[in-house]
UniProtKB/TrEMBL annotation:
PROSITE patterns: PROKAR_LIPOPROTEIN. It comes from Dyadobacter sp. 676. This is Sialidase family protein. Residues 1-24 form the signal peptide. Keywords: Signal. Residues 70-266 form the Sialidase domain. It holds the Pfam family BNR_2.
Amino acid sequence: MLLNRKLSSIRLAAALLLGPIVMTSCGSQKSETAEDKKLDSLASEKEFVFGDQRPFAQCHASTLVRLDDGQFLIAWFGGTEEKNPDVGIWLSKGRPGHWSAPVEVAKIREDAHWNPVLQKTDDGKVILYFKVGKEIAQWETWVKTSSDNGQTWSEAYELVKGDKGGRGPVKDKLIVLSNGDWLAGASNEVNRWEVFVDRSTDKGKTWTASPYLKIDTTEIKGKGAIQPTLWESEPGHVHMLVRTTGGVIGRSDSKDYGKTWSTIKKNLIAQP
C-alpha cells in the first residue's frame, strides 16, 4: 500500500482506463475475426493520476466510473496509514493525460475511512459509497451523491442508519438486475469472514440484507470469505466470486435474482 511501491492501486486504475483488457476462454476455438485482430494489436499504457506532490502519504482501494461526457472520476482512501484517523476519501476527475489535483471529497469525522465505490445510475447521477470506522467490524456505510458529474456533492448520510459491520457494496460496484432490483455484494469480519448480499427494490432508498451465505469449509479453510463481486448471466441467474482465506477464489450461484444462494465452493481460479 505504500506510496514508495508506486501507488499500485491508482496506477492500476489508470491502466484500466487506458488499456483494453482482452479475456479468453477455454471453449471451442473460433476463427479470428478482423475485430479480434484489431483488439490484439492494441497496447495498454499506464500513467499516474497524481505525482509526488500530494496531501497524503499512502493510498489504497481505487474505484472509477465513466461519466456521460467521457471523463472519469477516480476515488481512493488516503492518509498517513490505513486505519489512522486522518484517512479520508479522495477524488480526481479527468481523462488520460489530464487529471485534476486530488481533493478530499468525504471526511465524516476523525476516524478511518475505507473502500470507496463509485456508481453511476441510468439518469446520470453519481453515487459514492464508503466505509467509516477504526475497525472493520464496526464499519458504517456512508453515501454522497452528485448530479453534476462530480463537481458538487450532497451532504453525506448513512446507507442504513445505526447499522454496523458494512452494509451495501463492500468493495465492488452493485449491479442492477433485469427485474430492476439493485444488488450489492457485501461482507463483514466480526468473528469469521462472512458474505451476504444487500438488496434495494426502490433504487437505493431502503436496503434488505440476506442471511450469510454458507461456505464449504472442506474446500475453503481459514476464516472464510469476503468482498463478493456479482454479475447476472440471464434473467434471475446471478453469480458471485469471493475472496477467501483458503488460497482460492470462491463462487456461489443463484437462480432467483439473488434471493437464495448455493454454498460457496472453490473456483478453478487461483487466488494471488
